[in-house]
Design goal:
The chain has 209 residues and is of the alpha/beta class. The protein has a single domain, classed as Rossmann fold. It is built from six helices and 13 strands. Strand 9, helix 4 and strand 10 form a beta-alpha-beta unit. The longest helix is centred in the first third of the chain and has 19 residues. Bound molecules: 1-O-pyrophosphono-5-O-phosphono-alpha-D-ribofuranose and uracil. The site of uracil (URA) has 10 residues, from helix 6.
Length: 209
């Protein structure tokens, strides 16, 4: 069963409050999502493996550590996932970026795939799939299906706000994928929106509606 980590760091919680606030405009919303992306990346990379190397400081030779292990790729679920990419790249600038395009059919709430482009060396990479919202879970489950179909084996999922039903759907479909969230909300409303949530993440990020 995939583990669920809720990041209760005060800075993440503070910024999430203003992301949720309906009076926060597009520019500030985008900046805050970017900042929370960076803070969550800091937490999510806690278990990254290190290796020891030898360098020369101005004083003497020293054995010290650098990151080792798998190469990373960040995969936003289009559109809203794009808002978290730059924030993650600030901490992991060497990561490759793949894209999975999905939209949720407003009638059926089922995800419809329209684009998938991943780095070539899929099997050797560790993937972090990002999307601000995990509602019914359909989009995240489908995005990770798309990655696995192409050979991805090591996947984490990171989002801002999740509904319990979405977490359950992910754990059932992808028990090997750990889920990293900033908040676990109460439920979904009749239109499949997270309550209290933050509204439509794509529309708020890009100023559409
Ligand atoms: C939103 C959000 C997720 C999805 C979550 O995208 O960014 O991808 O809904 O809902 P689910 O868990 O019920 O699948 P949306 O379909 O609105 O597309 P957009 O990002 O292009 O606006
Ligand atoms: N997609 C969103 O953008 N917001 C929700 O609350 C649910 C799905």
């Amino acid at each position: 069963m995939g583990k669920v980590y809720v990041f209760d760091h005060p800075l993440i919680q503070h910024k999430l409050t203003y992301i949720r606030d309906k009076n926060t405009g597009t520019k500030e919303f985008r900046e805050l999502v970017d900042e929370v992306g960076t803070l969550m990346a800091f937490e999510i990379t806690r278990d990254m493996p290190l290796e020891e190397i030898e360098i020369e400081t101005p004083i003497q030779t020293a054995k010290t550590k650098v990151l080792s292990g798998k190469k990373l790729a960040i995969v936003p679920i289009l559109r809203a996932g794009l808002g978290m990419v730059e924030g993650v790249l600030k901490l992991i600038p060497a990561a490759k970026v793949g894209h999975v395009g999905l939209y949720r059919d407003p009638e059926t709430l089922k995800p419809v795939e329209y684009y998938v482009k991943l780095p070539a060396d899929v099997e050797e990479r560790e993937f972090i799939v990002v999307d601000p919202m995990l509602a019914t879970g359909g989009s995240a489950v489908e995005a990770i299906n798309a990655l696995k179909k192409r050979g991805a084996k090591n996947i984490k999922f990171m989002c801002l706000v999740a509904a319990p039903v979405g977490v359950e759907a992910m754990q059932e479909a992808h028990p090997d994928v750990d889920i990293f969230i900033a908040a676990l909300d109460e439920k979904l409303n009749d239109h499949g929106y997270i309550v209290p949530g933050l509204g439509d993440a794509g529309d708020r990020l890009f100023g559409t509606k």
